[in-house]
C-alpha cells in the first residue's frame, strides 16, 4: 500500500473529507502520469498514421511537445455516450495537433484514446446506433397521447448534428432534444454549445419544439432561449449543493466565499451563509439546493420579462459579459442574425437600445438594412445628415429648416444616418426601428461598422445621384465620403 492510499484510508476513518480529496487527487495524478507514459508510444503511432508518415508538426515546424507540456493536464470535451449501463465520456487531452483523447468511465479517468479521426469515427458510429434505436422506438410506439422525443447526437460535429436532426424529423418525432451541454458547460465551452444549438435549429421546423438537456443555469438560460430552445432541464441545483456551491445570477460561488446571499428568498431570509456552513451536511445541502432552485426560477422569470418587453437581445448581450468564455458566444450570435430574424418581431412596443458595434448585427437592424437596400428614388440630389433626436425625422424642426435651404426641396432626396442603421431615407424614417431606438451619445469609430459600408455602397449603387450634400464637420461621414462613386459632385451643407 503506497503513501497516498494509506492517507486516504486514514482520512476516511477520521472523517477528514478535505484531506481525503487532496490525497485522492494526488493519487489520480500519479496514475494519470503513469498511464500517459505507458500509452505514449501507442498514441504517437496512431496519430502519425492519421497525420502522415513524417509525424505530427506544430506551427513553425517544431516537433510536437504535447507530452512535455503542462497544458497536457487540461481536458476539452469531445463527446459522451453510454455503453452497457456505463457512461463513457471522451475528452481531448491538451491542445497539440496530436489531440489524444482521455476516456472517462462513470466519471473516472480510465484510458487514453488516440487521435481526433478515430474519435470522430466513434462519434459517427454512436449517431448511427442512436438513429437505429430511435427508428425502432418510433416504429413500435403506441398512440397513447405521449410525446416521443428524439435525441439529437453529433456533439461538436455540425454535419453529424444536421444529419441526426433531419433523420429524426423524417422519422416523425414530435419533439427533439439536444444532448451534451453538461460536458460543454463543465469545460466552459459555451461557444461550442451555441454552435451546436444553431446547427440543430437551422434544420428544425418551427412547429417542432427543441429541448436542451442539462442547461438549467442562469448563465446559459438566456443564451439557450435566444437561440431557440423551448424547454430545458438540469439537476445542477442539487449537484452544486452537494459540493456547497451556490448558483447566482452571474455564476456559481462557493458557500464559504459568500458574506451575503445575492438576492432574497425563503433561504436567505432565514439564514446567512456562515449559518449554513455551521449546519450538518445533509441539512446544508437541502437549504443550498432550495436556494439554487429559487435562483434558477428567478432567471427564468427575468428571461420571460425580457421577452415581454422586447429586450431579449439586450439581456443576452448583458449576460454574455458575465464570463469571458460566455462572451465568445457573441460571435456565434452575430454570425447567425439572419437565422435569428425569423423569430424576431418586425415591430415592438418599446425602443431598442444600441450600445456598441455588436448591435449593428441585431435582427431588427439587419432587417432595416434590407429595407434600405430595396429603396429606389429618381431624384438626382441627395442630402445626408446625422439623425436628430426628434423622431420621426420629418416632424423635427431641423428637417424643416434643412428643406428651406433648397429652392425646390421636392426634387431633393433627404436622408439621415446613424452608425447602426446606416442611411435612413426620409420616406422610411418612421419604420421600426428607425424612429424607435435609444443610442448612446458617443463618437463611434467608422471602421468598426462594416454593415454601414454595405448599406452605403448599396444605396449609391442602386440610386443614380449627380450631387451629394454632407455636413462640414462630421468625422464619421468624412470616413465614408471617399467611398462615394466617382462622378458624383460632393458639396457641403451651408449652416
Please, how many domains?
3
Class inferred from helices and paired strands: alpha/beta
Strand arrangement in the largest pleated sheet? 14-13-12-16-17
Q: What is the CATH-assigned architecture of the largest domain? A: Alpha-Beta Barrel
Which range best describes the helical content: under 10%, 10-25%, 25-40%, 40-55%, 55-70% or over 70%? Answer: 40-55%
Per DSSP, the total helix count is: 19
Main sheet record: 5 strands, mixed
Using only C-alpha atoms, the radius of gyration works out to 29 Å
Q: Within the CATH hierarchy, at the fold level, what is the topology of the largest domain?
A: TIM Barrel
Tally of DSSP β-strands: 17
User: Which superfamily, in CATH terms, is the homologous superfamily of the largest domain?
Assistant: Queuine tRNA-ribosyltransferase-like
Describe this protein's structure.
- With 495 residues, the protein is an alpha/beta fold.
- The protein has three domains: 3-118, no CATH class; 147-330, TIM Barrel; 352-492, Uracil-DNA glycosylase-like (Rossmann fold).
- 43% of the residues lie in helices and 16% in strands.
- Strand 2 (86-93) and strand 3 (101-105) form a beta hairpin.
- Helix 1 (3-14) packs across helix 2 (17-51) and helix 16 (363-373) packs parallel to helix 18 (450-462).
- Mean pLDDT is 81; it is low at 39-73.
Amino acid at each position: 500500500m503506497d503513501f497516498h492510499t494509506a492517507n486516504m484510508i486514514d482520512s476516511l476513518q477520521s472523517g477528514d473529507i478535505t484531506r481525503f480529496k487532496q490525497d485522492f487527487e494526488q493519487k489520480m495524478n500519479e496514475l494519470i502520469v503513469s498511464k500517459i507514459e505507458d500509452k505514449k508510444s501507442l498514441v504517437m503511432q496512431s496519430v502519425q498514421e492519421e497525420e502522415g508518415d513524417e509525424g505530427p508538426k506544430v506551427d513553425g515546424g517544431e516537433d510536437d511537445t504535447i507530452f512535455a507540456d503542462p497544458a497536457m493536464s487540461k481536458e476539452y470535451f469531445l463527446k459522451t455516450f453510454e455503453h452497457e449501463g456505463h457512461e463513457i465520456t471522451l475528452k481531448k487531452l491538451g491542445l497539440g495537433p496530436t489531440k489524444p483523447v482521455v476516456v472517462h468511465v462513470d466519471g473516472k479517468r480510465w484510458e487514453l484514446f488516440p487521435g481526433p479521426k478515430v474519435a470522430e469515427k466513434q462519434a459517427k458510429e454512436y449517431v448511427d446506433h442512436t438513429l437505429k434505436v430511435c427508428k425502432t422506438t418510433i416504429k413500435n410506439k403506441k398512440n397513447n397521447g405521449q410525446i416521443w422525443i428524439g435525441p439529437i447526437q453529433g456533439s461538436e460535429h455540425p454535419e453529424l448534428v444536421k444529419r441526426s436532426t433531419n433523420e429524426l424529423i423524417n422519422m416523425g418525432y414530435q419533439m427533439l432534444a439536444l444532448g451534451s451541454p453538461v460536458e460543454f458547460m463543465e469545460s466552459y465551452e459555451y461557444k461550442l454549445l451555441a454552435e451546436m444549438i444553431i446547427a440543430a435549429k437551422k434544420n428544425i421546423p418551427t412547429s417542432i419544439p427543441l429541448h436542451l438537456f442539462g442547461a438549467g443555469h442562469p448563465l446559459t438560460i438566456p443564451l439557450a432561449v435566444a437561440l431557440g430552445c423551448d424547454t430545458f432541464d438540469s439537476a445542477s441545483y442539487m449537484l452544486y449543493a452537494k459540493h456547497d456551491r451556490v448558483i447566482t445570477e452571474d455564476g456559481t460561488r462557493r458557500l464559504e466565499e459568500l458574506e451575503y446571499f445575492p438576492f432574497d428568498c425563503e433561504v436567505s431570509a432565514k439564514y446567512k451563509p456562515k449559518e449554513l456552513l455551521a449546519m450538518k451536511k445533509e441539512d446544508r445541502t437541502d437549504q443550498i439546493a432550495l436556494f439554487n432552485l429559487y435562483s434558477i426560477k428567478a432567471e427564468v422569470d427575468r428571461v420571460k420579462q425580457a421577452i415581454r418587453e422586447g429586450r431579449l437581445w439586450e439581456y443576452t448581450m448583458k449576460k454574455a459579459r458575465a464570463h469571458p468564455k460566455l462572451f465568445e458566444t457573441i460571435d456565434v450570435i452575430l454570425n447567425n442574425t439572419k437565422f435569428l430574424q425569423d423569430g424576431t418581431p418586425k415591430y415592438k412596443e418599446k425602443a431598442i437600445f444600441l450600445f456598441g458595434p455588436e448591435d449593428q448585427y441585431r435582427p431588427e437592424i439587419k432587417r432595416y438594412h434590407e429595407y434600405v437596400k430595396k429603396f429606389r428614388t429618381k431624384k438626382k440630389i441627395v442630402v445626408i445628415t446625422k439623425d436628430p433626436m426628434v423622431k420621426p425625422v420629418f416632424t423635427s424642426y431641423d428637417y424643416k429648416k434643412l428643406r428651406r435651404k433648397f429652392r425646390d426641396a421636392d426634387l431633393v432626396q433627404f436622408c439621415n444616418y446613424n452608425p447602426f442603421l446606416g442611411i435612413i431615407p426620409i420616406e422610411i424614417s418612421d419604420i421600426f426601428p428607425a424612429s424607435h431606438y435609444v443610442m448612446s451619445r458617443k463618437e463611434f469609430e467608422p471602421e468598426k461598422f462594416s454593415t454601414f459600408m454595405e448599406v452605403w455602397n448599396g444605396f449609391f449603387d442602386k440610386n443614380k445621384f449627380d450631387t451629394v450634400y454632407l455636413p462640414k464637420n462630421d468625422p464619421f461621414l468624412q470616413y465614408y465620403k471617399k467611398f462615394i462613386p466617382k462622378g458624383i459632385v460632393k458639396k457641403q451643407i451651408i449652416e
